[in-house]
Amino acid sequence: MSKETQWSGFARNAHGRNHLDMTEPSTHRSTWRAPRRDGSPDDAGYTLVELIMVVTILGLLTAAVVLVLSGMSTEAADTGCRADRRMLDVAVGAHHAEDRQDAIAPSGTDHDRFERALVEGGFLHEVSSMHDLDAAGVVTPEADSSC
């Protein structure tokens, strides 16, 4: 058998499905082709290069989607930090306007005592987990938060 002799590609079996036919050699060089499922003739399949290109393109698209989604979560966290800080600033401003005092009287002895005073006064719904508040109403990021 010469170097140019190859086994023929796919043939239809008794059930009409493609299978690898290695019964007789072919005298021409052909590229390997995967069978198509659209009813085309047996030798009109996708080449290995075409399949590799499709897989490569799908991989690139997947990578792009992952990058976009990871950026969205970072942006959402930043937006949450800004909203929490703004909420505390508004609550401090409302407290100062209503009580006409520059300092917030603490409620308790923990590090959230000034925020808790605003919650008890009805200026906040709950204590912030992202920011700390001091007696003067200055908002700072909490030590273990991502802000």
Written overview of the protein:
The longest helix has 52 residues, at 48-99. A two-stranded antiparallel ribbon has the order 1-4. The chain has helices at residues 48-99, 113-120, and strands at 6-7, 10-12, 18-20, 25-26, 33-34, 46-47, 131-133, 139-141. A hairpin with a 5-residue loop joins β7 and β8 (139-141). It has 147 residues and is α+β, with helices and mostly antiparallel strands. The protein has a domain at 72-147. The model is unreliable at 1-8 (pLDDT under 50).
In brief, what are we looking at here?
This protein has 147 residues and is an alpha+beta fold. The chain is built from 2 helices and 8 strands. A two-stranded antiparallel sheet has the order 1-4.
Key traits:
147 residues; alpha+beta; two-stranded antiparallel sheet; rod-shaped; disordered N terminus
**What is the number of E strands?**
8
| Overall form | rod-shaped
Q: Give a quick account of the main beta sheet: strands, pairing sense, barrel closure.
A: 2 strands, antiparallel
Strand content: 5-15%
Mind telling me the C-alpha Rg? Answer: 35 Å
Q: What is the terminal-to-terminal distance? A: 73 Å
- Structural class, by secondary structure, is alpha+beta
The portion of residues assigned to helices is 40-55%
Give the rounded overall mean pLDDT.
77
Q: How many helices?
A: 2
| Succession of helices and strands | EEEEEEHHEE
- Poorly predicted spans: 1-8
Strand order of the largest sheet: 1-4
